[in-house]
Write a structure and sequence with these properties.
about 300 residues, mainly beta, Porin, 16-stranded antiparallel β-barrel, two-stranded antiparallel sheet, 18 strands, about 50% strand
């Protein structure tokens, strides 16, 4: 379960937010200059639990992200609770056009270091300036081939809260979130390696040798987050979608036994730009923990 927890935190954003966009022509990490700027992101959630007779549905659109820009660069993103209250805000700090730091209003921050035109390391710090997580990149020619996650000090309750209110809460039940939170709370010094495989310019497989996440049915559009920042402070997730130019129609997470989660994405566009993405998730874990849900993300632009 511990490795699955880390795996889920690693790949969750790729499952959820792989949508189309026109990104910068210069494919350099840390530089993100889309030709059309996101203004707001909304979500509509519909959840159907198929474990027994339980089910629940919600069809109310809510604002989840509000983006601010400084010229051609993202200046900040504000996140919102389901009741409309502010959940938190991230400020973006640059050297020239390259992102070097994300500062969270709760005091947490992420620092980026580069080796020539490639990511080298990404470090996550708590408000006391103590390093909690470090990501180290490896490459096969120009493509990222592996990322090593080094965990250091135990993560405190504030980090756990970020997990609970982030995308993890959309992908697993409340009981599942509690399990993830407990495992992260007791996380000791450890390392974890993710390996990447590609088909052309898109990721086809992410694996640690035990768990696998496969992607297929890519469209011909440009991924909205291609070349965007790869670590979301408020959600503590690693966004693997930045490494794929296009958007997968399907992804499957497996552990080699009875666990399987299949996500199917359906996109709508206005010309080159997305209007919505609908994601349908079917989670099967034998007879003990099965459910499915659908949620739709809608975009507004400046």
């Amino acid at each position: 379960m511990k490795k699955l927890t880390v795996f889920l935190l690693t790949v969750i954003a790729a499952v959820i937010v792989s949508i189309s966009f026109t990104s910068c022509d210069k494919e350099e990490p840390g530089v993100y200059k889309p030709k059309k700027k996101i203004s707001k992101i909304f979500e509509v959630n519909t959840v159907v639990v198929t474990n027994g007779d339980e089910w629940w549905e919600e069809n109310v659109e809510r604002l989840v992200e509000d983006w601010e820009w400084d010229g051609s660069k993202v200046a900040s993103i504000t996140y919102y609770w389901s009741d409309g209250e502010v959940d938190g805000k991230e400020e973006y700090i640059y050297e020239g056009d390259r992102l070097v730091k994300i500062q969270c209003d709760s005091g947490y921050y992420v620092e980026y270091s580069y080796l020539d035109k490639k990511f080298d390391k990404i470090k996550f710090y708590n408000p006391a300036g103590i390093l909690e997580l470090e990501l180290v990149f490896q490459y096969n020619k120009e493509k990222v081939s592996a990322i090593t996650f080094h965990f250091y000090d135990d993560m405190d309750k504030s980090v756990i809260r970020m997990i609970e209110r982030g995308f993890v809460g959309k992908l697993i039940s409340k009981e599942g979130v509690k399990i993830v939170s407990k495992k992260i709370a007791t996380q000791s010094k450890d390392s974890f390696v993710m390996n990447f495989s590609y088909e052309g310019d898109n990721i086809s497989l992410i694996t640690d040798g035990e768990y696998t996440l496969t992607f297929s049915n890519y469209d011909a559009r440009t991924n909205i987050y291609f070349n965007f920042y790869p670590l979301r402070v408020y959600e503590l997730t690693y966004d693997t979608s930045i490494f794929s130019k296009n958007n997968p129609g399907k992804s499957i997470l497996r552990d080699g036994s009875t666990f399987e989660r299949v996500t199917t994405n359906t996109y709508t566009y206005d010309g080159k730009f997305p209007l919505t993405i609908q994601s349908h998730v079917v989670h099967n874990e034998g007879n003990d923990f099965n459910y499915e849900f659908t949620f739709t993300t809608r975009f507004e632009y400046k």
